[in-house]
Design a protein that fits this description.
Distance between the termini: 70 Å
Oligomer: single chain
Number of helices: 6
Number of strands: 24
Strand content: 25-35%
Structural class: alpha+beta
Order of helices and strands: EEEEEEEEEEEEEEEEHHEHEEEEHHEEHE
Number of domains: 2
Radius of gyration: 22 Å
Shape: globular
Largest sheet: 10 strands, mixed
């Protein structure tokens, strides 16, 4: 009888952090170091308690900046790894650095022969104008990765590329967060674990985000012992709330307790503090120099705080270019204007006005983002924060009829691409009592970029029209040999 020897772990540890972005009342979610494409891959399980509380489908809209660091054990100067990730729920990989092997549907990634050498190093990351930054949802987190390198991790080499970290970003997924969030009267939310979810520890926050941390209010409650009795969180107003600065410290402490090094914790906070809690109180609304790897680097058309973007700057880490656009009734929820043009729709990784925040148990992270490494690490520390956006969404239904397509692209391909962009298109629309029929025409260049977009049919409000056109121009199609003209009918049910 032959007994196989247990696998000997490799002489290293693997650390990872990221943010899981979900939206109240939406059926998909995203996992990001910073959130992602915007397709809907199906429905999440939604739990209901009955009574006056309406159940919430916390759709995983994206996962932002999952960033991986390698720490070799003392006495090890070099090693070679194979690292693979297959996001759950059909999520597609929208960004990756360095280059990885992916199937055509981009539902998994693999870095083969990752060479690790002793000591920190600094990579050369793409700028917004680079081809690899032309993503399908207009977001490019690769351009800001220099801000998240640390001095306590070791250098990774993939092919000819050296960097201080490994990075990927995913789009929407049919997946479940460990906590059910249910919303009821007077803005209260009730929270309880899903059936089979791992035990929840620590705290949960309800954040009412202001212009800066001094005006952001946060209600913090313990998750210890939360079960079938649930936990009710009132809005972050009145008695029992703390300012954003204090809540930010609480989050930083939790990240360190979960296993991140001080440098890794600081990298997470640089990425997400402003998007979650507002910019530092009294901070000037000025962005970094043009071309810098800094706040707002993730979207074309400028940097946070620049005149081209408009609105109040959110500062470093404000979800890759997200700024307060000033859309009526939606402060601090909209991505900065791409190219200095009209307001663009909210990106799932952007700052939101009302949200629930908690640290995801490692077992739930493993279920959302199965990770394999060979040889297996001696220890894995995966620290992800979940944010469920509670900002009320306009109850608008958007439907697309059959498109008339002339040119190289096939109609089924055009239909799939447009459906993946329903989220940003829908976010441009306001609820009212009317129904609207629209006829959109797009001219798609061989590069896949939309060079012309027009709208006919029933009239939209000026703001809705400008936003809808901008969202259509941001759509990216597959490359083709010739120009393609698309005539796409839409019906908007209000």
């Amino acid at each position: 009888m032959t007994v196989e020897a247990p696998e000997v772990p490799g002489p290293y540890t693997l650390h990872e952090w990221g943010l899981v972005a979900a939206t109240y009342g939406n059926a998909t979610a995203r996992m990001v170091s910073g959130p992602t494409g915007t397709s809907a891959f199906g429905s999440l399980g939604v739990g209901g308690l009955g009574g006056t509380l309406g159940s919430v489908g916390e759709g995983l809209r994206g996962v932002g900046k999952p960033v991986l660091y390698v720490h070799m054990d003392d006495g090890t100067d070099a090693l070679t790894l194979d690292v693979a990730v297959r996001p759950a729920g059909g999520a597609r990989v929208l960004e990756v650095f360095p280059d990885a092997t992916m199937p055509a549907d981009r539902t998994s990634l693999r870095w083969g022969e990752v060479r690790v050498t002793r000591g920190a190093c600094h990579g050369a990351y793409p700028a917004l104008a680079d081809t690899r930054c032309q993503t399908e949802d207009g977001l490019c987190e690769q351009s800001e990765l220099a801000r998240y390198e640390t001095d306590d991790s070791d250098c990774v080499h993939v092919g000819e590329t050296a960097a201080g970290l490994l990075f990927y970003r995913t789009g929407s997924a049919e997946a479940e967060l460990p906590l059910l969030v249910e919303r009821g009267d007077a803005g209260a939310v009730r929270v309880r674990p899903r059936d089979g979810a791992p035990p929840m520890r620590g705290w949960i926050m309800r954040i009412q985000r202001g212009a800066d941390r001094s005006t952001t209010m946060v209600r913090v409650a313990s998750l210890e012992g939360v079960g079938q009795e649930s936990l009710v969180l009132a809005q972050a107003q009145g008695d029992g709330v703390v300012p954003g600065d204090q809540a930010r410290i609480t989050l930083g402490q939790a990240l360190a307790e979960a296993g991140l090094t001080d440098a890794e914790r600081d990298a997470f906070m640089a990425a997400w503090s402003d998007a979650l809690f507002g910019r530092e109180s009294g901070a000037a609304a000025a962005g970094p120099p043009a071309g810098a790897h800094g706040e707002g680097a993730g979207l074309e058309g400028g940097i946070i705080g620049s005149g081209a973007l408009g609105g109040a700057a959110n500062g470093p880490g404000a979800a890759r270019g997200v700024s307060a656009s000033g859309r009526p009734g939606r402060p601090f929820t909209t991505i900065g204007r791409i190219g200095g043009g009209p307001p663009t729709p909210q990106h799932v990784l952007g700052s939101v006005q009302d949200a629930v925040l908690y640290v995801v148990p490692p077992a739930s992270v493993d279920a959302l983002l199965p990770l394999e490494a060979a040889p297996a690490p001696r220890e894995v520390r995966r620290v992800f924060v979940a944010r469920v956006d509670l900002t009320p969404l306009d109850r608008v239904t958007l439907r697309a009829g059959r498109a008339t397509v002339t040119g190289a692209l096939e109609e089924p391909v055009v239909r799939r691409v447009i459906r993946r962009h329903f989220w940003p298109l829908r976010q441009c629309l306001h609820a009212n009592e009317s129904a609207t029929n629209l006829q959109a025409t797009l001219r798609v260049q061989p590069s896949g970029a939309v060079s012309e977009a027009t709208l006919g049919g029933d009239s939209l409000g000026e703001e809705e029209r400008a936003c809808f056109l901008e969202a259509m121009r941001a759509i990216r199609f597959p490359t083709a040999e010739t120009v393609t003209d698309v005539n796409q009918p839409f019906v908007i049910a209000r």
